[in-house]
User: What shape does this take?
Amino acid sequence: MKNKTLKRLLTILFGLAFLGSTVVFMIGSLVSGERTSSPSSTPSANVPSAEERLLLQARGYQKVLDREPENLTALSGLVRTRLEMQDLEGAIIPLEKLIELNPQQKELTTLLEAIKQELAQKKQSEQTEENNKN
Assistant: This one.
């Protein structure tokens, strides 16, 4: 039952993150299209890949958090970005801070538990594979 709830929660979270990043990308494309006179004037070498875009987003959120450690928007953005990057371990610390600042949001606690459970399962399966090789 917990595994099913975890899958649902992660599916919803990743779906929302995907939709949000898609909307941001589309709006950014429209805005940058308005600034340039023709689409051929923008070199394609300057367009970051999805992975680079996520890394830039994570760095941006981290810079904000360096200045404002309790910024809820930056904390939730960093968690979402790291989850999109599939960096579960990297999402734990900002998620814990977000829970500390927002204890009434029980879904954050559920998400943290799900992430920790997923990491434990991954570690256990890696150990099992390693033991099977020996």
User: Anything to note?
Assistant: Residues 2-35 form the longest helix (34 residues). The chain has five helices and no strands. The chain has one domain: 2-27+52-121. Residues 34-38 have pLDDT under 50 and may be disordered.
